[in-house]
Every structure is written in C-alpha cells, then in structure tokens.
Amino acid sequence: MIRPIVFSSALILSALAAQADPAQTYGAECAACHGEDRLGGTGPALIPQTLKRMRGPNLISVITHGRAATQMPAFGEMLDEDQIAALADYLKTPLDSVPEWQPEQIEQTRWIDPDYTPADTPVFDADPLNITLVVETGDHHVSVLDGDSFEVLDRFETPFAVHGGPKFSPEGRYVFIMSRDGWVQKYDIWSLQQVGRVRAGLNSRNIAMSHDGKHLAVANYLPMTLTILSTEDLSVERVMPVIGKDGRKSRVSAVYQAPQRRSFILALKDTPEIWEVATDPEAEPIYEGFVHSREKGMIEGLPSSEGLFARRRIMLHQPLDDFFFTDDYRHLIGAARDTGRGVVVNLNVGREIAELPLPGMPHLGSGISWERDGKRVMATPHLKEGMLSIIDTQDWTVNETIETDGPGFFLRSHENSPYFWADVFFGPNRDLMHVIDKQSLEIVKTLRPVPGATVAHVEFTRDGRHALVSVWEDDGAVLVYDAETLELVKRLPMRKPSGKYNVFNKITFSEGTSH
Ligand code: DHE
After folding, report:
1. What is the distance in A from the centroid of ligand 1 to the CA of 164?
2. Which of 245, 253, 310, 491 is the most exposed place for a label (fewest CB within 10 A)?
3. Which atom of ligand 1 is nearest to the CA of 363?
4. Of all protein residues, whose CA lies closest to atom 42 belonging to ligand 1?
5. Domain Cytochrome c, which positions (predicted)?
C-alpha cells in the first residue's frame, strides 16, 4: 500500500520559515562553504561589494544551475524560484557590521603550504625571465607559460576572482596574486609551487610590491585599511586605518609601487587626498614633502626616528583614482570621476599642477608611454567612449585623440615594437583589437580573431617579438601573434583568460605596460 506522505506541522512551519527567511536558507544551504558570516570559506565571500564586481552569469542563475568546474552545486531542484530570488536579494544586502580585520584575524588565515620545497635553481630549462603568467578567470587558475616555446609549464589554482596585476619580486622569482576577497597567494616560479596564502582584507582592490621586494601592500575597501605584509612569509607588518584629515574613513581605490621614490602611493576613494607611504627608513630626504613634514614634526603614525611606513598626505580638491605615473614617478595623472577631467599631481611638491580634458571615463591605469617627435607621450583608453587620448607629459596637453570602434579597457606595447595594441572591450565590436603605429597614430590593422568573442588585454614576450592576446571567453584562448607581421602563430586554449604578465617586462617596468 502506498502511504500518503504526512508532513508534521513542525516541518511545514520550518519550510515556510525558510521560504520567508532567506537568512535561514543561507544558514542551511550556503554557510558551510561561504561562512556563517558570508565572508567566505572554501567558497568566496557573498557580500554586495564582491558580488557586484563579478562578471558572468547572474546570481539567480548561479544559485539555480551552479557554477561549472567549481564546487558550487545547483540548487534549482532543492529551492523554488521564490526562495532563490529571496536568497539572491539577501546576498545583495550589506552586512550589519564589518568584522575586525586586524593583524590577529589576518594571522589566523595565514597558511604556508607544507608541501612547498624551494628549488635552488629553476626546475625548468626555459628562460625564467621570459615566463608569462596567464590569469584564467574561467576556473580560477594561472597558467605559467614559457615565453619562447609557449609551452604551459604549470597550471595552479588561485583564490576565487583574481583582480589586478600579479606583482613579482624584483628578481622575478616570486609572484603575488590577489583576489577580490582579499586573499593573497605567493607562488614560487623557479619551483613551480605555491608557497602560501593569507587573507589580508575582506574586499580588496589590488596589491603593490615595495622597491626592495620586502613588503607587499594590499589596498582594501573592506575594512577601510591598507594591509602591509612581509613578502618573506606573508605575516602582517602593519594594518593602517585609512582616515582622511577631515576624520572621514576612506576606502583605498588602489595602491601603487613607486620604486624610485621608495614608497607606496595610495589612491583614496572617499577623501580628497593621496597618501604616500615610505618603504625605506632612509628614503625621506629625497622627498621635499617628507622633509617639510618632518621639519614640522608632522609625520603621523610613527615616532619621527622611524621612516618605514611613515605617511605623507597630499591634499587634493576632490578624490582622484586610477593613476598613471610618469617614468620618473615625479608626476601622476588621476581621474576625477564623472567630471570629464584628469588632474596632474606633482608628487615632489605635493600638489595639483594641471588639468586635462578627459571625457568618457579615462582608464589611466592602463596608460602606456613612449617617445614621439622628441617628446614623451602617454596614451589612455576611455571606458565609456570609443577613443584614445594621447597626452604630452611635458606640457600636459591632450595632443591628439584616436577614434576607435568602441570603448576599450587595456593598452599594451613594448620598447622594441613600433605599434601599440588597443582592445575594444565594450559594445558590439568587442571582438576587435586595433594595432596602432606609435608615430603616425594610424590604425595599421584591426584584428577580429574570433567573430563574436571578446578579445582583450595584450602582453608582449620579453624581446617584444610576440604579442599575446586573450580571447576572453570560457572556452577561450591566448592567441600568439608575430608582433611585426601581425600574423597569428599559435593558439593556446585557456579558460576565460584575462590579464597576462611577462616577468621581464614587469620587473623592468617596461614603458609599454601598466605598472
Ligand atoms: Fe580592473 C587592473 C580597477 C574592472 C581586469 N583594475 C586594475 C587596477 C585597478 C583596477 C586600480 C590596477 C591594479 C594593479 O594592477 O595593480 N578594475 C578597476 C575598477 O575600478 C573597475 C573599473 C571596476 C571594478 O570592478 O573594480 C575594474 N578590471 C575590471 C574588470 O571588469 C576586469 C576587466 C575583469 C575583472 O577581472 O574584474 C578587470 N583590472 C583587470 C586586469 C588588470 C586590472 C586584468 C591588470 C591589468 C594589467 O595589465 O596590469
């Protein structure tokens, strides 16, 4: 006899409660992997700051169908449509309070891989300085490419949702990679092994390496801090709260390395200041600003005998972010959001010195520079307009603009190449890549490698002979072009490859690459 299924009233009540209360659904179905506090565990943090930055299928679809090639299962059969929609809304609500993320909490997350054994010399025959790392965002891996043979030497798992450029130690042996969840991973290229991981922030923007390779700074949105780690063992050296002169807390939009200045430069999102943080106790005499501050006894946060991590504030008229630095690191151009203006700041004297008309959200962080007609120019794409601006970095004028087939994200060139490459990242032509002559500023060729597939971000090999282009799709590829003939020479299948980073070009601060 088939017995009718009888639900107890307690069960019905709990099912109704779960339906009504997405927090309960979260606790039952998600917390084991994503953490009771939604700050992540084996799965990523599920907080609006992180979720709204994630590209790809929307939240409802991920909950319903799961995420291919990850641990994220499909809940479509377990939860009904209303429950999934309520859960998605719940995940988009901010946390009631942001937990402490001080050295003690960070230290608890620090993990050194017990299987890591450092090699004395590279465990491969390839040129260790011509290694190129490819970040594959499709399944959260990095491929380690031999830049001569284009063979994949290793493919390792990264934390979830890597963003920004990985940063190499000055000799090129180690690389540090950051995820939007604030995890920092250290990897040894010579040994082809992960060294360890630490969670330096809860929602982070990017990382920067100090001039001597000893310190790694992590720019955080959540909490509003700069975390400085020891590159040796990923231990915490300092957590700096970021508070403007007016007392307002600020998110850090980005942190940059300024090797000649022996400092980190911070772009602050919520307060009209730039911060400079010294990475060398002896460095301050080279900065006018530091000398003045010191004379006036204004070095904050540290006794005046200690210069390491001493901070200098540069006051602005409004917050600036997305910096491009001149090669000598004396000047930066920052974008004043939604104003159509770029602002030039002289870092030595510590003040704004010029303004530039830059409409359509310039993406200055992707800027590159080169010599043209005896002048040093820089080029920047614009995220909201199909154009590139060419700026004279002596008199701070916009020399020329180049019309493109749509707004772009990244530019790249190399000292040995007469061309620079500009992607069209947004809009119907996002499958196009322009190749532009650095002197005539003419578009010499427009590539459409895979019709309909986004192509973006270029990196050159160490000698500049090859240009590597990402086909930014889940079943994507890195396409290797001859940088002179512009012919395709190789196709390397990859899972949604985003940025690519050549060790030599990065550690020598090549003028053709963002730093
Ligand atoms: Fe990025 C670099 C900020 C969206 C991929 N991005 C950077 C850097 C900053 C920045 C400050 C320089 C850091 C560094 O390398 O040390 N990015 C921002 C934003 O504010 C923005 C517009 C909005 C946001 O979501 O935060 C943004 N970025 C994106 C994307 O949507 C991209 C295309 C895909 C993704 O991964 O999220 C993206 N950003 C990248 C990449 C770099 C990067 C690949 C490194 C470029 C390089 O060649 O160095």
Report:
1. 5
2. 245
3. 22
4. 164
5. 17-95
Ligand 1 centroid, distance to 24 Cα (angstroms) = 35
For the record, the structure tokens of 104 come out as 């003690």
Burial class (CB in 10 A: 0-12, 13-18, 19+), 471: buried
Per DSSP, what are the bridge partners of residue 351? Answer: 346
CA 460 to ligand 1 centroid distance, Å? 19
What is the residue extent of each domain of the chain? Answer: 22-92
Q: Is the pLDDT of residue 10 over 90?
A: no
**Which ipTM did the prediction report?**
0.98
CATH of domain 22-92: 1.10.760.10
Distance 478 CA to ligand 1 centre (A): 19
pTM for the structure as a whole: 0.89
The predicted pLDDT at position 296 comes to 43
pLDDT tens-digit readout, 235-284: 999 999 999 999 999 999 999 999 999 999 999 999 999 999 999 877 65
Q: At what angle do helices 81-91 and 9-20 cross, to 10 degrees?
A: 50
What is the Cα–Cα distance from 335 to 238, expressed in whole angstroms?
Answer: 28
Kindly give the distance from the C-alpha atom of residue 163 to the centroid of ligand 1, in angstroms, as a whole number. Answer: 6
User: Could you tell me how many residues make up the chain?
Assistant: 515
Q: What is the pLDDT of residues 423-441, one digit of tens each?
A: 999 999 999 999 999 999 9
- Write out the E strands in 180-258: 183-188, 193-199, 203-209, 215-222, 225-230, 236-241, 252-258
